[in-house]
Design brief:
- A 3-stranded mixed sheet has the order 1-4-5. A two-stranded parallel ribbon has the order 2-3.
- Helix 2 packs across helix 7, helix 6 crosses helix 8 and helix 7 crosses helix 8.
- The protein is mostly helical and about 290 residues long.
- It contains 13 helices and 5 strands.
Length: about 290
């Protein structure tokens, strides 16, 4: 799904879209809107004025201005334990709520437009509707393609839930499904987080931002056993991925090893370093670095 979003798994753009959609349905997340968000991340990684990382990091000054309760809530919501409920919400609940929200917004805007035309006695254009059904899944631009993918994904996922519940039984299916989705989402979000939020990560203002430094110094590589790399599809070789997202995951290791001499400033993290990364949830805009609370 990830490589399809980058147009890296197949040479054909439409084959990437089709396969990406089906993989998105398996993962319960609309692939096209997700890939657009992910492309924004690649485009602005390291520019913390525009892109605040996977958990919407606040600036140090903004955090200091919060009331004590909001500070505690902010810190708690970015604690590693929230990977589990947050992961389940992100995959299973959020895409369904997004469609509901988009539908409600459309109906409200449609009715307001209709009432205003009646009030103006503009009966000739009464059914010349300018209100558009928008997808709110992506925060960085909404397109008809996102909307279609959001709707089709929800139909496919909910149909799958219904059929599997009928086959296995409601209790058995949702017990197994919830555990699998929660665990997989928690791992996915954790890896994504620690590969960009770590001590010494490149965290620049827009005016000083370098796309090259953002890729090399704003992305960490995971120094983990090969069998874990297999489960992660070698995304642990993350610096080379940010330098060229069109490299498919199955070639990341070879490309990384071939270009190691050019990646001297790249950061490597071991498993024992991962818990420490969750402390870096603030951006100090003055020193241009990530900070702890």
């Amino acid at each position: 799904m990830h490589d399809c979003g980058h147009g890296a798994l197949f040479r054909s753009r439409w084959l990437n879209r089709v396969v990406g959609f089906f993989l998105g349905a398996i993962n319960a997340i609309p692939q096209h809107p997700w890939s657009r968000d992910h492309a924004f991340h690649h485009k602005h990684n390291g520019d913390w004025e525009i892109y605040r990382g996977p958990v919407d990091v606040l600036s140090l000054n903004a955090f200091k201005s919060l009331p004590a309760f909001n500070k505690s809530l902010y810190t708690l919501s970015r604690h590693w334990i929230m990977l589990f409920p947050g992961g389940f919400f992100y995959l299973v609940i959020k895409p369904r709520l997004t469609l509901i929200h988009a539908t409600i917004c459309f109906i409200r805007s449609f009715l307001i437009e209709l009432i205003n035309k009646i009030h103006r006695r503009d009966f000739e254009n009464l059914f010349n509707i300018t209100t558009r059904f928008r997808s709110y899944h992506s925060g960085y631009g909404n397109t008809s393609g996102e909307l279609i993918d959001l709707f089709a994904n929800n139909v496919a996922v909910i149909t799958g839930w219904f059929l599997m519940s009928r086959w296995l039984g409601l209790g058995l299916f949702w017990s197994c499904y919830s555990i699998i989705m929660t665990a997989s989402a928690a791992i996915f979000i954790c890896i994504f987080f620690v590969q960009h939020n770590f001590e010494g990560s490149y965290a620049s203002r827009t005016e000083d931002w370098s796309v090259l430094r953002g890729a090399i110094e704003g992305s960490s590589n995971l120094d983990i056993p090969d069998y874990l790399n297999w489960f992660l599809a070698d995304i642990s070789f993350h610096t080379i991925h940010h330098l060229c997202e069109r490299i498919p995951n199955y070639n990341l290791r070879a490309c990384h090893n071939r270009n190691k001499h050019l990646l001297l400033n790249a950061r490597y993290l071991k498993i024992k370093d991962i818990p420490n990364c969750f402390q870096y949830i603030l951006w100090d805009e003055k020193s241009q670095e990530l900070s702890t609370t």
